[in-house]
Amino acid sequence: MRHIVILGNGISGITAARHIRKHSDDRITVISSETEHFFSRTALMYIYMGHMKYEHTKPYEDYFWEKNRIELRQAWVSHFDFDNKSITLDEGTNVPTELTYDILILGVGSESNAFGWPGQDLEGVQGFYSFQDLEAMEANTEGIDRAVIVGGGLIGIEMAEMLLTRDIRVTMLVREEAYWNGVLPKEEAEMIGRHIREHGVDLRLETELEAIHDDNNREAALRVTSVTTKNGEQIDCQFVGLAVGVHPNVKQFSDTALETDKGILVNEFLETNIPDVYAIGDCVQHRNPLEDRKSVEQIWYTGRIMGETVARSICQTRTPYQPGVFFNSAKFMDIEYQTYGQVPAEAPEGIKSFYWEHPGGKIALRLNYREDNNTLTGINNFGMRLRHEVCEKWIKGKKSIGYVLSHFRDAHFDPEFFQRHEKSIVAAFNKHSPKHNVKLGGKAPFWERVWG
Ligand SMILES: Cc1cc2nc3c(=O)[nH]c(=O)nc-3n(C[C@H](O)[C@H](O)[C@H](O)COP(=O)(O)OP(=O)(O)OC[C@H]3O[C@@H](n4cnc5c(N)ncnc54)[C@H](O)[C@@H]3O)c2cc1C
């Protein structure tokens, strides 16, 4: 029986553990310093907002692990001896423990970025990634009324939403000229920017952090009292959320033989340069990224697929990582967002882009398609419920834009009596590109047939 040690109990490590157990009787140990049990990182914000308790973010009952013979160790791994296939665990006692493995899987995740700003280590200044960050945010925001969030991405908007539920005024500093416009095309970035402001956030675009200032308290730990921006403005606050992206958690391997760059370098089989050591999830950097994909992709579903892939390679046949059609989802306050395939901020040459937005400014759709043969290459969806499997099938099956729009009802699944938008979307598309002359097919929902 082999001993498979998995470092990291996030989505990638836990998926690997579950799938290895499905396929084998090997001894499995999962180690993480963060929490004893796997929880959904994407749900952390709901604990702060009071919608969920920590228990609700755990997808498996606590007895699941013992029942499936998956040993859990809550410990920090402080040393890696790859030559002797041994790691050192610091479990909070004075005596570190050595643990040997036959196969080691590294699913060590990410860490929040901080760019060396003066004052970034003050009390009340933090990122938001881990369970410990959630606890720190609870403590740091108790009784305060003013916060500054630095950065305009997915985590920044989550932190803003969290703070608003506690009546804390939020100023958001975004370096770019529109919210998350390195990822979102202009129209979507502007729509979300408007939405953020509608929620009462003081969104400052083209504004960069210069420094974070303290309260000059000699008796206690120094605490944040204000920030200054590069425009020379001072903003008073008692909390600063640093939401300027994350990086793979690889510093810990700097004095080892493990090859890293931005992340842990892996081949298409998720193998590192060290025999019997694999890497999966956020911490990975692909040596040869697949076409249209980035070398580092720090998202939930790719971690899950890497976990499944590595389990298959270890227990069955050596399997290359194939993530399929790119997918990501998030929520911008009240607006749900899904993206499929390729929708870059700027459509590249040879790609046409059709954008439709509902006059209410909270529902939108973008379809990207090839100019030469009209096949769909990407979808951005805001505020509508579209079936994941249908969108994926359209892109994978290289369906034409005309086909997609005429079959749009196959994807849409907003519940009965929700306003449907297929007709206006198709009408807008026919205006954008009359030569296609798309006719909406499928059966209109009952109430639309009755009331038009
Ligand atoms: C607030 C927030 C919201 C997000 N929302 C979305 C979303 O909507 N959609 C989406 O696709 N993605 C989202 N993400 C990203 C997604 O959560 C991550 O891509 C995913 O959780 C990464 O999983 P992982 O298994 O690679 O690593 P992680 O979940 O980071 O797990 C790694 C674990 O390894 C532990 N560890 C590392 N080194 C050691 C060591 N030496 N010893 C012991 N333990 C160690 C860490 O403490 C950690 O517990 C979000 C992330 C955050 C923070």
From TrEMBL:
Alphabetical UniProt keywords: FAD, Flavoprotein
Family to which the UniProt record says this protein belongs: Belongs to the FAD-dependent oxidoreductase family.
Signal peptide: none
InterPro entries linked: FAD-bd_OxRdtase (IPR050260), FAD/NAD-bd_sf (IPR036188), FAD/NAD-binding_dom (IPR023753)
Coiled coil (residue ranges): none
GO molecular function: oxidoreductase activity
PANTHER family xref list: NITRITE REDUCTASE [NAD(P)H], PYRIDINE NUCLEOTIDE-DISULFIDE OXIDOREDUCTASE DOMAIN-CONTAINING
Cofactors named for this entry: FAD
Protein name listed in UniProt: FAD/NAD(P)-binding domain-containing protein
Lineage: Bacteria, Pseudomonadati, Bacteroidota, Cytophagia, Cytophagales
Entry's transmembrane regions: none
Domain FAD/NAD(P)-binding, residue spans: 3-287
